[in-house]
Amino acid sequence: MAGAVESADNVTRLIEAAAEMFRRLVRPSVVEWAESQLYMSPKVTERAGMFSTDDCAYMREPLECFKEVDVDEVDLCFGSQTGKTTIALVGLAYSIENNPRRTMFALPTDEIARRFVKNRWLPLVDSAEAIRRHKPENSDEMTNFDQNFDTCSVFFTGVGSAGKVSSEPIALLFEDEIDKFPAETERESDARSLLEERVKSFVDRLIFRSSTPTTRTGNICKSFEKSDRRYYFMPCPRCGKPIRFEFANLKWYERPEGEDAWDVERVRRTAHYVCPECGGAVTERDRQKMIGSRGGGEWVSTNPKARKGHRGYHLNSMYSPTLGFGAVAAKFIEAKETPGELQNFINSWLAEPWEEETFDSDPKKLKGCELDYNRGDKMGSVRVMTVDVQRRDLRFNVRGYDGEKSYLIDWGTLSTWEDADAKQELYGVSYVGVDINYRERQGEVYEVIYTRRAKGWMAIVGAGDSAQLKPFTETTFNPFTGKKRQMKFVKSGINLLTIKSSLYKGEIAARRSGTRSDWHVYRFVERGYVRELFAESPVEKYVRGRRVREWKVHSEDNHQFDLECYQLAMAHYLRLHKYGAIRFTPKIAKAQHTPPAASAGAQPQTPAQPMPAKKKYIPIDQR
Questions:
Q1: How confident is the model over 208-221, as pLDDT tens digits?
Q2: CATH of the domain at 616
Q3: Are strands 617-619 and 582-584 parallel, antiparallel or unpaired?
Q4: 76 and 154 share one domain
Q5: Domain limits at 500?
Q6: Is residue 19 situated within a structural domain?
Q7: How far, in Å, CA of 156 to CA of 152, rounded?
């Protein structure tokens, strides 16, 4: 009898093993499994509830790649709020349950990886029984970086050091936000190369890459170009022909002639898409139906020469179920006048690479910027002067602003600070930005700015080309004591504007080449100004395979080029380009207060890291 029972148990175990093998071979649909098994908590997504693709049908095909045996590379070049991270989370959960294999999830840094596990991944695991039941009983086996489920092991890591990711053999590799991964150095290969070496020995390998793009030479763009390059097409609700959403066909109300600023809310309300096939208007309601499960959309490959098994998917934010035509149009209007914000819009909303424009350095191009007015004419409703401090004199530039338009009024050399006062009074200048970079006169410059701060004087300085640096950063500090406060004004202090030099140099290069209609010089502008304005030009080099822009200095007399960069930065800081003539009123100490005397031979202290301070803007009609 005992032998019969044992035999029956063996048969049962064989049947269960065969059923498990069959289950793994005949895997369920990723979407069907996820929609029946995964609850998305509010910690994971803003659309809490059971996972669904009803309003974002474009997610279905990329998800099914986790099931397909003939797909070994997937690239998602997606815009904001389109669900690229959700696709990765669902794919990882599906793999643990239905196709377990040794897995690594790589992010740019350890800190980002830790936050991702804590705020996105673990809440999904805990809210979905299908995954929670595979968690190890020992909590030590479930850390932020190493998780040993009963079906497979999953490793999370930051790739700040390439050596950290070069030892683990893995079959399923996730690379998230790969355009932020560190580049190759002289001592070690880039992290991506070392990571992808880990998967070569596995037959059922899959590399899943995702990122918003940066430049055309960035990781996701280079990988996507090698893929089959799929785009999501949907039938037009007017003519029925397949179309895809492209920013060039997004339209909104036409701004009346003479109106300087856009009505952003009206842009949001009137935004619609124009079908490139029939010219019909596609409304926001149409859009929601088109991206939904009944919209009839499908992914179309556009690169027949791609290697089989390498799929690439591109999607911009016009497909997002939580945004829409109005949100995209309004974001563009708000971003288009500020270089840093415009690049973010191109990368994160349109999922397109940022292309640095190259401009001719031909002074003849400046003719296209000339208008019929004379040097010294008081153009614009608000005027700004920038000053470059030299050993024995001062170089200056005065511009007038009317909404989005600006006009060169005067430029040249001043002998004393009293001459600068006279220029301010002559042209009714509201704001004066003084370059503090000439260290031999820095103490003098600080005191001059301090005593004139009630007249709109402030310090300005150019900074390096750090990718993390904002277009400009404002600091309020006391140069004689070094004291500063975040979000609070320092008594007896001055304002310092630190700008990203390379960014504004590129913007001035665009304007001097005549490609903009909002930046002007007076007629018959002098050769000296032209020579100094064109004293620097951009050149492109390739450093370790990456395209890098540098600025070549043709002449040391580049003062007007620098001063025009400062002008544009101050216009952005004061928001003159957006709201027209406005008045910035700094909180300052009483005018009769005198600065403390600096000790002999000592230089005033400059803050190591600029800290933002509050600003108050008063429209001109409320002065």
A1: 999 999 888 888 99
A2: 3.30.420
A3: antiparallel
A4: yes
A5: 377-595+602-622
A6: no
A7: 13
